Amino acid sequence: MNRREFIRSFVVTAALVATAAAGFVELGGLAEKNQNGSNTISLIQQTTSQSIAGSTNTVSSSQLGSSVSTPTGYVLLAPLADLTGKTFAYFTHPTFGSSILVNTGGVWKAFSSTCTHRPCTVQYQSSAVYCPCHGGTFSPVDGSVTGGPPPTPLPEYSVLIQNNNVYVGNTVIN
Ligand code: FES
Hints:
This protein has one helix spanning 3-57, and strands spanning 74-79, 88-93, 97-104, 107-112, 123-125, 128-130, 137-138, 145-147, 156-157, 159-162, 165-169. By secondary structure, it is of the alpha+beta class. The protein contains one helix and eleven strands, in the order αβββββββββββ. The protein has a four-stranded antiparallel sheet, with no helix packed on it. Strands 5-6-7-8 form a four-stranded antiparallel sheet, with no helix packed on it. The model is unreliable at 10-56 and 62-66 (pLDDT under 50). The chain is globular. The chain folds into two domains: 1-57; 61-169, Rieske Iron-sulfur Protein. The structure holds FE2/S2 (inorganic) cluster (FES). The site of FE2/S2 (inorganic) cluster has 11 residues, from loops.
């Protein structure tokens, strides 16, 4: 290889290396875009799963029609059909906030879902209202404390089933 051939070979090799390096940088950019895309997809999936969870055990008054007259002292919560097959459902009471409906022996009861020991959301399992934070338990019949550290019963609202709708009282009854 003479001097001219060597220089030509060096220039071609340098150009190839530069092209490959540019491609690598671009691939790096694509990887970053894909990673961001994955994060976005995860957020959508997380939102979707939250929606699915919400549709399982959450009822919302926004699902209701506006033509139903509400009995005095109550707020319209949901069509009774929304509770079919459920043993409990979380809802937001318009006055008292986070709340839970529980079905005890075929009778729907409504309570605040915030534990009276600390601001922890109670659950309904095996026919008992249960606080996962420190093991407090409440009666699903009247919200009274049946075990653990909670100092007072869960505030209860009356429940009225009428015209195939579920209503909850707008006052605390105990
Ligand atoms: S927060 Fe419910 S038992 Fe402590």
